[in-house]
Target: Methionyl-tRNA formyltransferase
Amino acid sequence: MSHSLRVIFAGTPEFAAAALAAIHRAGFPVPLVLTQPDRPAGRGMKLQASPVKRYAQEHGLEVAQPTSLRRAGKYPQEAADGIAQLRTTPHDVMVVAAYGLILPQEVLDIPRFGCINIHASLLPRWRGAAPIHRAIEAGDAQTGITLMQMDAGLDTGAMISEVRTPISADDTTATLHDRLAEAGAQLIVDALIELERSGKLASTPQPADGVTYAEKIAKHEAALDWRRPAEALARQVRAFDPFPGGAGTLEDGSIVKIWAASAVAASASGSNKAPGTITEVSPDGVLVACGEGVLRLTQLQKPGGKRLPVREFLAGSPLAAGQRFQLPEAE
Model:
């Protein structure tokens, strides 16, 4: 099936590539794809194209990679060129998903139907950079996708539609990301079909209360603070898979990455020990005393090694009851 509504797409990671693929497969013309400049990645730090750029190139879509779209920013000439390209590319609407560049009002005003953002939370909760991670970390019971008519604020625009999904006890950022990427792809295609049919999309302003911000995930957050409750640490480990993972440093300075863990009831053996103390080691898990309750570690990795189930990890890196993880310096 083909459509006449012309869509400029702006996005960068896998989450965005899923939406671009769905829009393209649905038959909407995509005259231009914007994505972040190639970045060094991997062991050799070679320049790598974003998932969105790779999809666009594989399907013959034109790609632009401006460093900025803000005339008042550090790259005024690149911004001017990027804006000129948007103005000279005939289109009706712009769809934005995890693009990573700030869009000034001047850019939001170019498309006839404005810019629609695919945001991975139930707004106004978790505006900002890392909504999937922060929803798991906070123990939210559900999250979802909100389509939003963009304005110049940070994820403050009026809401067009949403879809919800429960967060299960074993969801990680990786599993939830894939579910939300698929849901967002479906939601945007439905919205574009409706926009083409009726020439408008109804939207409602976001509520003023319940606003939270999802700060970008920083590498230093990987260090688990054993003074916290085991429940909170278990959520942190799930939120930080695939990046940056959880980490503990033993008293001898060796680092252990922690990829899977669950909280054990506070009555478990060793819950009276000092936080960070390993209280029990078995093929079923390494138990570590926390500020409240005990954390059972079930998937571990040593630097340079592979992620391993605890039984295999212990075969190569023995741990013993009584050993202690260092407590990170309180922020």
User: Anything to note?
Assistant: The chain has a mean pLDDT of 95. The first helix runs from residue 14 to 25.
